[in-house]
Amino acid sequence: MSALRFEHVSKTFPDSTYAAVNDCTLAVDSASFVVLLGPSGCGKTTLLKMVNRLIEPTAGEIFLDGTNIRALDVTALRRQIGYVIQQGGLFPHLTVAQNIAVVPELLGWQKARIDARINDLLELVQLNPDYYRARYPAQLSGGQQQRVGLARALAADPQLLLMDEPFGAIDALTRAALQDEMLRIKNAINKTILFVTHDVEEALRLADKIVVMQAGQIVQYDTPHKILTEPVNDFVRELVGADDMVRQLSLVRVASVMSPLPNNFVLNGTATIDANDDLKNALSKLLQTGAPSLAVLQENKPVGVLSLEKIRASATGH
């Protein structure tokens, strides 16, 4: 069963002459990372906000784990969905620990359980609990605030996480570091994530699948690799730079094109690359080492292999 399903969802705002979201249908699989991508005004944030009913659809239905969200109490719905916005959206008058504790306290968790959860989540986002628990948002950098915002969204252990341009207001270097962290955390938490961005490189780097939107409609819904190599029209081709093969290699993750591990595979000194690394670095390592293939590692364990032929096929779409 899909974790999240949209069926013919539309939204027209009062006094508007056009639909902000127009007849969108898609299914988001459980534990997948799906990115809504497109230019400003294409409807991606509106579609996201209809999931936790910050915006109500004009037409269509949205289902969470098979249940129509209209049948759920809106407060109860929001408590089972994590929500991350730009700059974290932290309460400035609360400490880091108090910010993270907000939803668990509303759910009536015991103090000991809340304290343990705060420490676990700060460790997950790589902020030392002893140092950061008592600090206030104004004492944190933008990147640190965003990490706390993510920790707060995960506090009650929701199965669905909504992220609306979470790294949009952060400088490029910090943004890249947070994307690295997002890939690491994604593998650790096993959650369904719906993530809005207008940044093509961010989408291609993070997503399992991408929803490309234009003028309120879904133009293409596919893997980053397929969108790069088989764009459905000129809009998608130009949006993702599908004709720039070198750029493609730097944006496609190794995990998206690797082959399964052969039977009886033994690492035994084989050249390796991380699953979250990109194909450009993989190609460089293959050329440097002269190895016929690389063992792909995730959390230091072999999960696949990558050959020069696979990289070539990825770049050419064959």
- Average predicted confidence as pLDDT: 90
Please provide the ordered H/E string of secondary-structure elements: EEEHEEHEHHHHEHEHEEHHHEHEEH
Stretches where pLDDT is under 50 for at least 5 consecutive residues are: none
Global Rg: 21 Å
- β-strand amount: 15-25%
User: How far apart are the termini?
Assistant: 31 Å
Summarize the structure.
This protein is α/β, with parallel strands linked by helices and 318 residues long. The chain contains 13 helices and 13 strands.
Please characterize this protein's 3D structure:
β7 (160-164), α7 (172-189) and β8 form a beta-alpha-beta unit. The protein is α/β, with parallel strands linked by helices. The protein contains 13 helices and 13 strands. It has helices at 44-49, 74-79, 96-106, 111-124, 129-132, 142-153, 172-189, 200-206, 224-229, 234-240, 245-251, 279-289, 308-316; strands at 2-11, 21-29, 33-37, 59-64, 67-68, 81-84, 160-164, 192-197, 209-214, 217-222, 272-274, 293-298, 301-307. The longest helix has 18 residues, at 172-189. Helix content is 37%, strand content 24%. The strands form 3 sheets. The protein has a 6-stranded mixed sheet.
